[in-house]
Design the sequence.
């Protein structure tokens, strides 16, 4: 099922209506699937603004529209931390049929972990769903209860040869159940955290999807170790906000005019740093750029309760939903 819930302000994301997927856990309780959403979501309100990112958004929207004629294609969004990669993907997905997932640092060393999470999401399965629940979902979907799929989701041994292309074919079959023949957007946030096996499979996804009108968009941190997912695809490199746009953002957040010039200079056009500075009561820092951002993030954690701070750290590590602290 799908549910829209109000969420606290998320800085440059501008998200005021957060949609998540829910499913029943093994005990029959409804649970949210965290920072992941899929399905057809008609917009319940006007799309959130994305100051200074209109050109990038238009490029990706055009790429999605072109899939109707050209078939499945890929794109890669790169940028430094806090520059707005996640915000751009969220805005692109607004009101469109989509599958959206954010990968986590702890999954990088587990072969197939990222791919398994993506498939579970598209099947409506919680990350922690037990084997019986997984088997029940697979048996209810004709053609999906295969040895390869059970090996991926249940770690069952299989005598069948498993190739990257074969796995990609299985994933396409799962995503078809979400797309229903319509254009589909798949966003793969923080793809620099992907394990090698998942990356190899996802690289072949567009090729296997063929004429289907799907756009696969990965995001990665600038300077992340290569190889990156979709490195050879159309590239969107997010630049810092211009001083004029940054000042306008601070004005929209109610920052007094005398404070804006110094904040714009210190943030160096980074939206996350601007938001953290607007929230901070400490104006004594002499840091700028990335060092200032790190300092402000630490301050934000210290302002939280111990439980919220720990939950935020765990959510960042495991890629699941948590308090809007980081």
Sequence:
């Amino acid at each position: 099922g799908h549910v829209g819930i109000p969420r606290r302000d998320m800085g440059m994301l501008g998200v005021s209506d957060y949609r998540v997927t829910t499913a029943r856990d093994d005990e029959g309780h409804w649970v949210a699937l965290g920072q992941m959403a899929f399905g057809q979501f008609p917009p319940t309100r006007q799309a959130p603004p994305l100051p200074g990112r209109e050109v990038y958004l238009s490029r990706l929207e055009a790429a999605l529209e072109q899939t109707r004629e050209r078939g499945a294609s890929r794109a890669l969004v790169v940028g430094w931390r806090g520059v707005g990669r996640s915000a751009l993907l969220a805005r692109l997905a607004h009101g469109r049929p989509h599958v959206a997932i954010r990968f986590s640092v702890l999954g990088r060393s587990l072969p197939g972990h990222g791919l398994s999470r993506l498939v579970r999401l598209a099947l409506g399965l919680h990350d922690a769903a037990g084997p019986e629940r997984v088997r029940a979902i697979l048996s209810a979907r004709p053609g999906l209860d295969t040895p390869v799929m059970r090996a991926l989701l249940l770690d069952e041994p299989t005598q069948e040869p498993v190739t990257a292309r074969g796995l990609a074919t299985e994933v396409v079959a799962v995503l078809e159940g979400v797309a229903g023949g319509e254009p589909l957007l798949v966003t793969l946030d923080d793809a620099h955290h992907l394990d090698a096996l998942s990356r190899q499979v996802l690289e072949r996804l567009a090729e296997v999807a063929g004429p289907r009108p799907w756009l696969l968009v990965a995001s990665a941190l600038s300077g992340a170790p290569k190889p990156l997912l979709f490195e050879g695809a159309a590239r969107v490199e997010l630049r810092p906000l211009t001083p004029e746009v940054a000042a306008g953002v601070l004005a929209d957040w109610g920052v007094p005019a005398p404070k804006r010039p110094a904040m714009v200079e210190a943030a160096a056009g980074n939206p996350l740093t601007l938001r953290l500075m607007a929230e901070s009561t400490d104006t004594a820092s002499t840091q700028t750029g990335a060092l200032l951002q790190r300092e402000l993030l630490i301050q934000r954690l210290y302002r939280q309760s111990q439980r919220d701070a720990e939950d935020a750290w765990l959510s960042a590590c495991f890629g699941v939903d948590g308090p809007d602290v980081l």
The radius of gyration is 20 Å. The chain is about 40% helix and 15% strand.
